[in-house]
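Progress against Task 2.4 (sequence-to-structure conversion) is shown through the following example record, which the project officer requested during the mid-term review.
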Amino acid sequence: DIVFISLRDLEKEEKSLIEKYGIKVIKTSELRRKGPESIVKSVVRYLSDCTDIYVSFDVDCLDAGITKGTGTPVENGLREREAEDLMSKFMQIPKICCFEITEVNPTLDRENLMAEIAFNILQRSVNILMLH
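Structure tokens generated for the chain above:
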């Protein structure tokens, strides 16, 4: 009952576990092609047997151009607005029981940029929750 979105740089052990357990992976290109609403609907369908959905937003899914404040920046990730749109769509789903943001590393951050981006994503997500 796991879905990875915008997963790009994998260690061989991670790739092995994904293949072994048939974990669903949605590429950045698929998200861009189909849009966040379609992706969220497909994830919710995929997890239809789950009573609760826990969203863990790892800032490593963001593009390397904006993720200086994380340990593993990788090209071809989500742009800030794409991440905000995706998370705001997830926050409209009643099964969402928890939302966290991970991997912000203040010792690597420049001028608090990564923390600000993470905060913007969190703030927009919380605003959506308050509307529902």
